[in-house]
Amino acid sequence: MRTKQRPITSTGSPSHELRIIGGQWKRSKIKVLDQPGLRPTPDRVRETLFNWLGQDLSGWRCVDAFAGTGALGFEAASRGAQSVLMMEQDAKLLPLLAETQKRLSASAVQVQKGDALMALQRMAPDSLDVVFLDPPFEATFFESALQFAAKAIAPEGWVYLEAPKKWEADALASCGLVAVKYMKAGAVHAHLLQRPSEG
């Protein structure tokens, strides 16, 4: 959900914070830069998402593909995920992700700079339990991201998608996914998608 943008200071200082909602780092703060296009997942949506997924993600292998603030990935790690790869292309955001990872001693979290779409395409098939997809809303590659994520997750694995519109069943089926849960909060259309079990 977009908030009113404030200018970034010359030092790139964060202008506000959000809090991790659950798990071992509950109420810990994540610093957020106000800059165009950065749209942290609203608290209400994050809370709903992890009610859908379950509060205990012990052993889960996760990718936060367009990490931004890292809110989704840090929530997953806080709930016990075995590994969380955060992909982010914006060089301004990487230091904050690394700082939060270090401050929380989040050993399961790995922060990487790079093209999330390319990284997803190269992931080993069936190697993940959940992929978080929260691309810029103006992006034109939603379908490709869904297809690559569907191949990377194991059967019955999950893809969480935030998009500027609701994705219908036929479009999701062409990507190898089915919708399990859906909600709309402001401009955010939040989808929990699943790769059906083989056979």
Task: Describe it.
There is one protein chain. It is globular and about 40 Å long. It is 26% helix and 28% strand. By secondary structure, it is α/β, with parallel strands linked by helices. Helix 4 packs parallel to helix 5. The relative contact order is 0.15. It has a single domain, classed as Vaccinia Virus protein VP39 (Rossmann fold). The protein starts with 15 loop residues before the first strand and ends in a 5-residue tail after the last strand. The longest helix is centred in the N-terminal third of the chain and has 11 residues. It contains six helices and nine strands. A hairpin with a 2-residue loop joins strand 8 and strand 9. The chain has a seven-stranded mixed sheet with strand order 5-4-3-6-7-9-8, with helices on both faces. Strands 1-2 form a two-stranded antiparallel sheet. The N terminus is likely disordered.
Brief descriptors of the model:
6 helices; disordered N terminus; alpha/beta; 199 residues; 28% strand; 7-stranded mixed beta sheet; Rossmann fold; globular
Order of helices and strands: EEHEHEHEHEHEHEE
Tertiary shape: globular
Strand arrangement within the widest β-sheet reads 5-4-3-6-7-9-8
Please tell me how large the radius of gyration is.
16 Å
**CATH homologous superfamily caption:** Vaccinia Virus protein VP39
- Could you describe the largest sheet, including whether it forms a barrel? 7 strands, mixed
Derived structural class: alpha/beta
Count the strands?
9
Q: What's the CATH topology label? A: Rossmann fold
Please give the domain count.
1
β-strand percent reads: 25-35%
CATH class reads: Alpha Beta
